[in-house]
Write a structure and sequence with these properties.
The complex is a heterotrimer of chains A (258), B (254) and C (254). Chain A is mainly alpha-helical. Chain A has one domain. Chain A has 11 helices and no strands. Chain B is an alpha/beta fold. Chain B is built from 8 helices and 9 strands. In chain B, strand 8 and strand 9 form a beta hairpin. Chain B is globular, with a radius of gyration of 18 Å. In chain C, helix 2 packs antiparallel against helix 4, helix 2 packs parallel to helix 6 and helix 7 crosses helix 8. Chain C has one domain. Chain C contains 11 helices and no strands. The mean pLDDT of chain C is 91. With 254 residues, chain C is an all-alpha fold. The chains are: A mainly alpha (258), B alpha/beta (254), C mainly alpha (254). Chains A and C meet through helix 2, helix 3, helix 4 and helix 8 of A and helix 2, helix 4 and helix 8 of C. The structure holds adenosine-5'-triphosphate and magnesium ion. The site of magnesium ion has 3 residues of chain B, from helix 1. Chain A: This is ABC transporter permease. Chain A: It comes from Nonomuraea phyllanthi. Chain C: GO terms for molecular function: ABC-type transporter activity.
Chain lengths: 258, 254, 254
Amino acid sequence: MSVLTSEWLKIRSIRSTSLIIGLSLSAVLLGFGLAVMAAGMYDSAPVDRRPSARISDLEEVVVIVPQLCMGILGTLAMTSEYVTGLIRTSLTIVPRRWPLLGAKAAVVVAAALVIGPTVVFGTYFLSRWVLGDRFSGAYTVAFLDRLPVLATVSLTVPVFALLGLGLGALLRSTPAAISITVGLVYVIPIIIGNIPEPWSERLGSLMIAALPRQITGDGNANSVYGSLLPPVAAAAVLVAYAALPLLVAAWLLRRRDV
Amino acid sequence: MVRRARGPPSRILYGVIELQHLTKRYGGTLAVDDLSFKVEPGHVTGFLGPNGAGKSTTMRLILGLDAPTSGRALVNGRAYTSLRRPMREVGALLDASAVHGGRSAYNHLLSLALTNDIGAARVAEVLAQVGLAGVARKRVGGFSLGMKQRLGIASALLGDPGVLMFDEPVNGLDPDGVRWIRDLMRSLAAEGRTVLLSSHLMSEMALTAERILIVGRGRLIAEATVAELTSRYPSLEDAYMALTAGSVQYGAAR
Amino acid sequence: MKAAVSSEWLKLRSVASTYHTLGTAALTVLLGVGWTLYVSALADERGSLRAAAPEQGFLPLVQISLAVLGVLAVTSEYATGTIRPSLAAVPRRGTLLLAKAGIVGLTTFTAATTILLLTYSVSRLLASGHNLGFNTTPLADDLPSLLASSLSATALALVGLGLGTAIRSTAGGIVSVVALLFVLPGIANYLPSPWNTRVATLLLPNIVPQIVGARLSSRLGDGFLPPWAALAVLCAYPVIALAVGYVLLKRRDA
Ligand SMILES: Nc1ncnc2c1ncn2[C@@H]1O[C@H](COP(=O)(O)OP(=O)(O)OP(=O)(O)O)[C@@H](O)[C@H]1O
Ligand SMILES: [Mg+2]
């Protein structure tokens, strides 16, 4: 318990934590802005074109901001200790290495579990309020029908936090861990979009952004992502993204010199 | 004019550091407060003061790393930042840990040397001088505290400068290294160089320095020769304790 | 200036992260081989096929890897503290930044051009005899696009250097280039038209198609910039980022 408190203090005192959290939360404003612009466009469109107007799910557009930010927070929670040499002190105070990693994981997940849902649901409700009954589809559907997707999408944020933490502990380098996180979220999906079928769909089903809608069984129509996985498998893949780097890191942390 | 003792006099070594009402404020902290003094060549000048007195800040201001809030710091009558090849006039060791752990000692020094048109031969020379020739190609990340300290001293010596500043260079050195530093400082001064040395080790300072500057809370408290101080007080340490009694900010509660 | 440039060149050569970032960018060649073999096999099955050219499909990998190289060229100095010795050796801060920019610019331009040309030639060699859509035009027609692509990677590396100087943090520097390269374009896609195209036309990933007169994407259609204006916007990115970095570097304490 005291390890948790200590990690919580450390995370809070990383110079950039408040900036990262602020940036994450600003995604709600971004979603709000996009909704306002979309509403304006809808209202200025000729009446006969309105029924065919479509809008993307804005919370899924803006969620990449908290995803990336929490991934970085997870990475910094680990790598900032290596940069400053504080890790040696930390491991002298908490010599058992797994509790240290576990406490860091608990703290970043806790932060991400607040921020993820705040951004996703905040964007959803704001957009719903701004858009009213404009656009058929996303925001005119009953909230309860959308709840499963919204909930799983917000769960991807803690997954990123753990992924960032695991990569940070594994690689012990801020640029390397952040670059791989960025590669997973941005670079690989662009490349997959260019691959011809059937591999585009196969690999596209494994991307983090493709998983929430496979878990809820909604499918990923109109995107570069595939939907070949049954819900249970998709959930397993999502868990693997968070757990695999962390487990390898935990194993290494025990075996490596600090 | 004092010239270099051995070899042909490559150039004049006479140098001087001069502070004129130097003041530096960080937000609410007055780190250096209207400091004026002159550091002259030919002897080691000890720079003393309690933790947080402003010694390191003063050195950063002299090197133009931080900008003074008011006043100025001059080296050989000019602002450091206006020197064309500054390492040939001033050498400084501020923080020995400021090295990229992935680079070799040789590459670290060479990257600094190149900026001031100093050749690779001189890099090898200073590495040998500080006793690191054997590990010149090793990653600095694997160096011990004392080895890093020696590397920092090597970087100060690179340009064979007339003015040298060392911020706590004896930290982490073995007894052999401590004596080596003492002899090095004294011989650098004997060659006619200006040497400003900060340290908290009073006994070492008494053996190394001839003149002493004591600062506290950013202000100059005393400027005297070691001989004057030790004639008035039992030892340099007693002199220091008495003079800084009112200026200690981070002392243990008694 | 020449001295500062050769020092920066040594600094870049003597750290492992340079080779990691260049190696990651160079993965493009291997990925291009795999890509070409895969689509060639598909073309054999299906007769013919329209695939994206590998040097275009994998361009984001080259861009982001080299951008990270640019960021690290300066933020690693802040992370390790070597920025102080560096600035003590080269007190003119503009000179230091300009030397870094020269070396980062040359290195990344050479690397990007080599990698893209290699990817181009290897894939065209492997693809000969197949009709893959991307391998029907002669090299002379593709050269402008290849050149614009490597210019865009160079520009991004310099943006990374400028923003890294301004932010002084590796994480912050990488995030800001990621924002320019991926996040903003991703969000611009979702703006209601015509704002999506208006905004996207100015964003980095869409500059290359506009320089060679291609459309941005099926969703965004044609950009608004004529080739010369697109080239000017591409140059404006690093110029603005480096100017911001310079002003802050000049004004702040090191
Ligand atoms: N970059 C900075 N930002 C804010 N405050 C600073 C900064 N650098 C120094 N200070 C403050 O200025 C004062 C003088 O610090 P300085 O490091 O110069 O002391 P010092 O005499 O070198 O101490 P020590 O003997 O412990 O090395 C301290 O109160 C310190 O907190
Ligand atoms: Mg100090």
